[in-house]
Amino acid sequence: MLFSHLREDIHCILERDPAARTAWEVLTCYPGLHALIMHRWAHWCWTHGLKWLGRFISHQNRFFTGIEIHPGAHIGRRVFIDHGMGVVVGETAEIGDGCTIYQGVTLGGTSLSKGAKRHPTLGKGVIVGANAQVLGGFAVGDGARVGSNAVVTKPVPAGATAVGNPARIIVAKADVLDAKQAEREALAARLGFSAYGVTEGDDPLSQAMRGLIDHAAVHEHQITLLWRTIEKLAQDAPTEAAKCCMPQDAQTTEDFDAEGLNRLMK
Protein backbone atom coordinates (compact mmCIF):
# COMPACT_ATOMS: atom_id res chain seq x y z
CA MET A 1 0.00 0.00 0.00
CA LEU A 2 2.76 2.44 0.97
CA PHE A 3 4.74 1.79 -2.20
CA SER A 4 1.66 1.97 -4.46
CA HIS A 5 0.84 5.41 -2.99
CA LEU A 6 4.45 6.47 -3.48
CA ARG A 7 4.41 5.43 -7.15
CA GLU A 8 1.17 7.35 -7.67
CA ASP A 9 2.59 10.44 -5.98
CA ILE A 10 5.73 10.40 -8.12
CA HIS A 11 3.74 9.82 -11.31
CA CYS A 12 1.34 12.70 -10.62
CA ILE A 13 4.26 15.08 -10.00
CA LEU A 14 5.88 14.06 -13.28
CA GLU A 15 2.54 14.72 -15.00
CA ARG A 16 1.82 18.14 -13.48
CA ASP A 17 5.26 19.72 -13.08
CA PRO A 18 7.11 20.41 -16.35
CA ALA A 19 10.30 20.98 -14.33
CA ALA A 20 10.29 17.38 -13.04
CA ARG A 21 12.59 15.23 -15.19
CA THR A 22 12.98 11.82 -13.54
CA ALA A 23 11.37 9.77 -10.80
CA TRP A 24 14.67 9.79 -8.87
CA GLU A 25 14.75 13.59 -8.96
CA VAL A 26 11.17 13.76 -7.66
CA LEU A 27 11.87 11.22 -4.91
CA THR A 28 14.97 13.00 -3.64
CA CYS A 29 14.34 16.70 -4.33
CA TYR A 30 10.61 17.44 -3.86
CA PRO A 31 9.68 18.53 -0.31
CA GLY A 32 5.96 18.23 -1.10
CA LEU A 33 6.43 14.50 -1.66
CA HIS A 34 8.52 14.15 1.51
CA ALA A 35 5.82 16.02 3.48
CA LEU A 36 3.12 13.61 2.27
CA ILE A 37 5.20 10.57 3.18
CA MET A 38 5.85 11.86 6.70
CA HIS A 39 2.21 12.88 7.07
CA ARG A 40 1.11 9.32 6.36
CA TRP A 41 3.34 8.12 9.22
CA ALA A 42 2.01 10.84 11.51
CA HIS A 43 -1.62 10.17 10.52
CA TRP A 44 -1.21 6.44 11.24
CA CYS A 45 0.11 7.22 14.70
CA TRP A 46 -2.70 9.73 15.30
CA THR A 47 -5.45 7.28 14.33
CA HIS A 48 -3.92 4.48 16.40
CA GLY A 49 -3.87 6.40 19.65
CA LEU A 50 -0.24 7.57 19.47
CA LYS A 51 -1.18 11.24 19.56
CA TRP A 52 2.11 12.65 20.86
CA LEU A 53 4.19 10.64 18.39
CA GLY A 54 1.94 11.80 15.55
CA ARG A 55 2.42 15.43 16.58
CA PHE A 56 6.16 14.93 16.94
CA ILE A 57 6.47 13.47 13.43
CA SER A 58 4.35 16.37 12.15
CA HIS A 59 6.69 18.79 13.90
CA GLN A 60 9.73 17.16 12.31
CA ASN A 61 7.93 17.27 8.97
CA ARG A 62 7.54 21.04 9.35
CA PHE A 63 11.19 21.42 10.33
CA PHE A 64 12.54 19.51 7.32
CA THR A 65 10.06 20.58 4.59
CA GLY A 66 8.54 23.89 5.70
CA ILE A 67 5.09 22.29 5.32
CA GLU A 68 2.89 22.00 8.41
CA ILE A 69 0.21 19.31 8.23
CA HIS A 70 -1.69 18.34 11.36
CA PRO A 71 -1.59 14.55 11.81
CA GLY A 72 -5.38 14.50 12.04
CA ALA A 73 -5.87 15.87 8.52
CA HIS A 74 -7.14 13.50 5.84
CA ILE A 75 -5.26 13.63 2.52
CA GLY A 76 -6.28 11.61 -0.53
CA ARG A 77 -4.21 10.05 -3.27
CA ARG A 78 -2.22 11.75 -6.05
CA VAL A 79 -2.06 15.06 -4.15
CA PHE A 80 0.70 17.40 -5.33
CA ILE A 81 2.09 20.07 -2.98
CA ASP A 82 4.22 22.17 -5.33
CA HIS A 83 7.14 24.09 -3.76
CA GLY A 84 5.23 23.86 -0.49
CA MET A 85 7.03 26.32 1.77
CA GLY A 86 4.58 27.80 4.26
CA VAL A 87 1.67 25.45 3.54
CA VAL A 88 -0.51 24.90 6.64
CA VAL A 89 -3.19 22.21 6.80
CA GLY A 90 -5.42 22.11 9.88
CA GLU A 91 -6.59 19.16 11.96
CA THR A 92 -10.05 18.65 10.44
CA ALA A 93 -9.07 19.54 6.88
CA GLU A 94 -9.77 17.01 4.13
CA ILE A 95 -7.99 17.04 0.77
CA GLY A 96 -9.50 14.96 -2.02
CA ASP A 97 -7.76 12.87 -4.65
CA GLY A 98 -5.80 14.65 -7.36
CA CYS A 99 -5.60 18.07 -5.68
CA THR A 100 -2.78 20.53 -6.35
CA ILE A 101 -1.66 22.95 -3.61
CA TYR A 102 0.96 25.67 -4.03
CA GLN A 103 3.25 27.44 -1.56
CA GLY A 104 1.87 29.56 1.25
CA VAL A 105 -1.61 28.02 1.23
CA THR A 106 -3.54 27.84 4.49
CA LEU A 107 -6.42 25.42 5.00
CA GLY A 108 -7.40 26.97 8.30
CA GLY A 109 -10.29 27.32 10.70
CA THR A 110 -12.38 30.18 12.02
CA SER A 111 -13.80 28.40 15.08
CA LEU A 112 -12.27 27.60 18.45
CA SER A 113 -14.69 24.74 19.22
CA LYS A 114 -12.81 21.52 19.91
CA GLY A 115 -14.10 18.48 18.03
CA ALA A 116 -16.02 20.58 15.50
CA LYS A 117 -15.38 20.59 11.77
CA ARG A 118 -13.26 23.76 11.67
CA HIS A 119 -11.25 23.36 8.46
CA PRO A 120 -12.24 23.10 4.80
CA THR A 121 -12.86 20.02 2.69
CA LEU A 122 -11.37 20.06 -0.80
CA GLY A 123 -13.09 17.87 -3.39
CA LYS A 124 -11.33 15.91 -6.10
CA GLY A 125 -9.04 17.75 -8.49
CA VAL A 126 -9.13 21.10 -6.67
CA ILE A 127 -6.31 23.57 -7.36
CA VAL A 128 -5.35 26.10 -4.68
CA GLY A 129 -3.02 28.88 -5.86
CA ALA A 130 -0.05 30.35 -4.01
CA ASN A 131 -0.75 32.16 -0.71
CA ALA A 132 -4.48 31.47 -0.88
CA GLN A 133 -6.32 31.24 2.44
CA VAL A 134 -9.27 28.85 2.66
CA LEU A 135 -10.79 29.39 6.09
CA GLY A 136 -13.73 27.54 7.60
CA GLY A 137 -15.46 24.18 7.75
CA PHE A 138 -17.08 24.32 4.31
CA ALA A 139 -16.55 22.39 1.08
CA VAL A 140 -14.72 23.37 -2.08
CA GLY A 141 -16.35 21.35 -4.85
CA ASP A 142 -14.71 18.91 -7.24
CA GLY A 143 -12.59 20.54 -9.93
CA ALA A 144 -12.84 24.01 -8.38
CA ARG A 145 -9.93 26.46 -8.44
CA VAL A 146 -8.83 28.99 -5.85
CA GLY A 147 -6.69 31.77 -7.29
CA SER A 148 -3.44 32.99 -5.79
CA ASN A 149 -3.86 35.29 -2.75
CA ALA A 150 -7.60 34.62 -2.58
CA VAL A 151 -9.27 34.59 0.85
CA VAL A 152 -12.16 32.12 0.76
CA THR A 153 -14.62 31.99 3.65
CA LYS A 154 -17.65 30.40 1.95
CA PRO A 155 -18.35 27.26 -0.08
CA VAL A 156 -17.14 27.07 -3.68
CA PRO A 157 -19.31 25.10 -6.14
CA ALA A 158 -17.82 22.30 -8.21
CA GLY A 159 -15.97 23.59 -11.26
CA ALA A 160 -16.07 27.23 -10.12
CA THR A 161 -13.17 29.63 -9.55
CA ALA A 162 -12.68 31.78 -6.44
CA VAL A 163 -10.51 34.90 -6.78
CA GLY A 164 -9.86 38.04 -4.75
CA ASN A 165 -10.12 39.17 -1.13
CA PRO A 166 -12.79 38.49 -0.10
CA ALA A 167 -13.12 35.81 -2.75
CA ARG A 168 -15.67 36.24 -5.53
CA ILE A 169 -17.07 33.04 -6.99
CA ILE A 170 -17.00 32.70 -10.77
CA VAL A 171 -19.12 29.88 -12.14
CA ALA A 172 -17.84 28.54 -15.46
CA LYS A 173 -20.17 28.98 -18.46
CA ALA A 174 -19.10 26.68 -21.24
CA ASP A 175 -21.45 28.29 -23.76
CA VAL A 176 -19.62 31.64 -23.66
CA LEU A 177 -16.06 30.37 -23.96
CA ASP A 178 -14.28 31.45 -27.11
CA ALA A 179 -12.42 28.82 -29.15
CA LYS A 180 -9.01 29.59 -27.67
CA GLN A 181 -10.24 29.60 -24.08
CA ALA A 182 -12.20 26.37 -24.67
CA GLU A 183 -9.01 24.79 -25.97
CA ARG A 184 -7.12 25.89 -22.84
CA GLU A 185 -9.86 24.52 -20.58
CA ALA A 186 -9.86 21.18 -22.42
CA LEU A 187 -6.08 20.92 -22.04
CA ALA A 188 -6.30 21.71 -18.32
CA ALA A 189 -9.01 19.09 -17.90
CA ARG A 190 -6.89 16.44 -19.61
CA LEU A 191 -3.92 17.23 -17.39
CA GLY A 192 -5.97 17.76 -14.26
CA PHE A 193 -3.96 20.92 -13.83
CA SER A 194 -4.21 24.70 -14.14
CA ALA A 195 -1.15 26.59 -12.99
CA TYR A 196 -1.71 28.54 -9.75
CA GLY A 197 -5.46 28.05 -9.94
CA VAL A 198 -6.31 30.80 -12.42
CA THR A 199 -6.47 31.51 -16.13
CA GLU A 200 -6.62 34.86 -17.89
CA GLY A 201 -10.41 34.60 -18.09
CA ASP A 202 -10.92 34.35 -14.32
CA ASP A 203 -10.65 38.04 -13.36
CA PRO A 204 -14.21 39.12 -12.43
CA LEU A 205 -13.57 42.81 -13.16
CA SER A 206 -12.32 41.97 -16.64
CA GLN A 207 -15.31 39.74 -17.21
CA ALA A 208 -17.68 42.51 -16.12
CA MET A 209 -15.99 45.08 -18.35
CA ARG A 210 -16.07 42.73 -21.33
CA GLY A 211 -19.76 42.16 -20.73
CA LEU A 212 -20.43 45.92 -20.69
CA ILE A 213 -18.35 46.40 -23.85
CA ASP A 214 -20.23 43.65 -25.66
CA HIS A 215 -23.54 45.09 -24.46
CA ALA A 216 -22.61 48.56 -25.74
CA ALA A 217 -21.58 47.07 -29.09
CA VAL A 218 -25.00 45.41 -29.45
CA HIS A 219 -26.76 48.69 -28.64
CA GLU A 220 -24.71 50.57 -31.21
CA HIS A 221 -25.53 47.98 -33.84
CA GLN A 222 -29.27 48.20 -33.10
CA ILE A 223 -29.28 52.02 -33.16
CA THR A 224 -27.42 52.03 -36.47
CA LEU A 225 -29.98 49.66 -37.98
CA LEU A 226 -32.81 51.90 -36.77
CA TRP A 227 -31.27 55.03 -38.33
CA ARG A 228 -30.65 53.19 -41.60
CA THR A 229 -34.30 52.15 -41.68
CA ILE A 230 -35.44 55.71 -40.96
CA GLU A 231 -33.09 57.03 -43.66
CA LYS A 232 -34.50 54.59 -46.19
CA LEU A 233 -38.07 55.53 -45.28
CA ALA A 234 -37.22 59.23 -45.57
CA GLN A 235 -35.67 58.73 -48.99
CA ASP A 236 -38.68 56.78 -50.20
CA ALA A 237 -41.23 59.21 -48.67
CA PRO A 238 -43.23 61.32 -51.15
CA THR A 239 -43.27 64.50 -48.99
CA GLU A 240 -40.63 66.93 -47.73
CA ALA A 241 -42.04 66.62 -44.18
CA ALA A 242 -41.18 62.94 -44.07
CA LYS A 243 -37.63 63.68 -45.21
CA CYS A 244 -37.16 66.21 -42.40
CA CYS A 245 -37.48 63.49 -39.76
CA MET A 246 -33.96 62.33 -40.65
CA PRO A 247 -31.41 64.41 -38.63
CA GLN A 248 -28.23 65.51 -40.35
CA ASP A 249 -26.05 64.00 -37.58
CA ALA A 250 -27.80 60.62 -37.52
CA GLN A 251 -25.22 57.82 -37.23
CA THR A 252 -25.76 55.24 -39.94
CA THR A 253 -22.34 53.57 -39.65
CA GLU A 254 -20.79 51.65 -36.75
CA ASP A 255 -17.46 52.85 -35.35
CA PHE A 256 -17.55 51.34 -31.83
CA ASP A 257 -14.34 49.29 -31.51
CA ALA A 258 -15.51 46.53 -29.16
CA GLU A 259 -12.71 44.18 -30.21
CA GLY A 260 -10.06 46.79 -29.48
CA LEU A 261 -11.46 47.50 -26.01
CA ASN A 262 -11.68 43.79 -25.23
CA ARG A 263 -8.02 43.39 -26.20
CA LEU A 264 -7.10 46.08 -23.68
CA MET A 265 -8.82 44.06 -20.95
CA LYS A 266 -6.76 40.94 -21.59
- For the terminal residues, how far apart are their CA atoms? 47 Å
Reading the helices and strands in chain order gives HHHHEEEEEEEEEEEEEEEHHHH
Shape: elongated
Uncertain segments of ≥5 residues (pLDDT<50)? none
Helix content: 40-55%
Main sheet strand line-up: 3-6-9-12-14-15
Strand percent estimate: 5-15%
Structure annotation, total helices: 8
What is the average per-residue confidence, as pLDDT, rounded to a whole number?
Answer: 81
Class per helix and strand makeup: alpha/beta
Give me the Rg, rounded.
27 Å
Largest sheet: 6 strands, mixed
Number of strands: 15
Overview of the structural elements:
The chain is an alpha/beta fold. It contains eight helices and 15 strands. The chain has helices at residues 2-16, 23-29, 31-47, 51-65, 179-191, 204-236, 240-243, 258-264, and strands at residues 68-69, 74-75, 80-81, 88-89, 94-95, 100-101, 106-108, 121-122, 127-128, 133-135, 139-140, 145-146, 151-152, 161-163, 168-170. The strands form three sheets. The protein has a six-stranded mixed beta sheet. Helix 3 runs antiparallel to helix 4. The model has no long low-confidence stretch (mean pLDDT 81).
